[in-house]
Specification:
Number of domains: 1
Radius of gyration: 25 Å
Strand content: under 5%
Shape: flat
Number of helices: 14
Order of helices and strands: HHHHHHHHHHHHHHEEEE
Largest sheet: 2 strands, antiparallel
Number of strands: 4
Distance between the termini: 76 Å
Structural class: mainly alpha
Length: about 325
Amino acid sequence: MRRLIDNLDNASWKFLAALQTAIFVLFHALALALGLRFDMAPLGMFAHYADPVLLRTRLLESVFYLHVQPPLYNLALGAILKLFPGHEAPVFHALFLLNGLALYVLVLVLQTRLGVRKSVALATSTLFVLSPTFLVFEHVLVYTLQCATLLVAAALLLETYLRTRVSSRGWAFFISLFLLCGIRSMYHLGYYVLIACAVAAVMRGYRRQVLWMALIPGVILFSFYAKNYVLFDKFPSFLSSEKARGSKPSATCRGTNASVSQTKARSRRCRWSSGSMRSNITRRTYATSPATKTSPCCDKPPNQPARSTTTTSPRSPCPIFT
């Protein structure tokens, strides 16, 4: 055992990468044989994503007006849906597996850069990959795995930049940070600015270089928030949307009534009010007998006259037209 540990500590990076790849492939082959499959259900259910129909047909427009979530992940989803119609699930599965392998390798490299022995880093990173939590997020269409990879990659790039002062590593660090903030709203614009200021404070002789590298991704990130302020009168709408994940938002273009999905309720409409887009569900309630349920559709059911009164939902500021 002692000889094995010494051999791992003295092993080359190519050998460790090959060993990690073999462990990763064997483990996932076993999981596949046991029936583990990739879950695409969040694409049609989660409020994080625009409707798949809009992502396929009106990608840029939908991403532009979807203010409850940063645009980059929906943009990537829509690109895959457009490029691989009918084969989205295997493509997403392959990309997530590659992402998992990359995270496995990056965790080991980061540990060794921080002073951990290679044998210990290999053991801990392997336990991390074999954990049920890692396996779940690797097989569900959510952005948790991508955010974890970007965090580890950003930490590794920052360590390299602080140690070597190579500008390319600094550029890659801020781009990774920009991608992280452009995917998940929890990583707000203030998060990016705070880290950029901290790096500039540490790099005293390179402050101008750090600020220049942080400026371009920061301006693009700021444009996401500025767009929301102009269109919706809400600058930090990404951050506030983390508290509201119960229902799927509808992405529409300004001044139009675009259908969200062919299988969704036909009564969903979007309108503009006071310079902001509000998604309201209009319902037409019909006079029914005690044995008949109220229809939520806009289409009038046969032989049932519509009411002429208007009520307001007690739990929602949106009017319900009945």
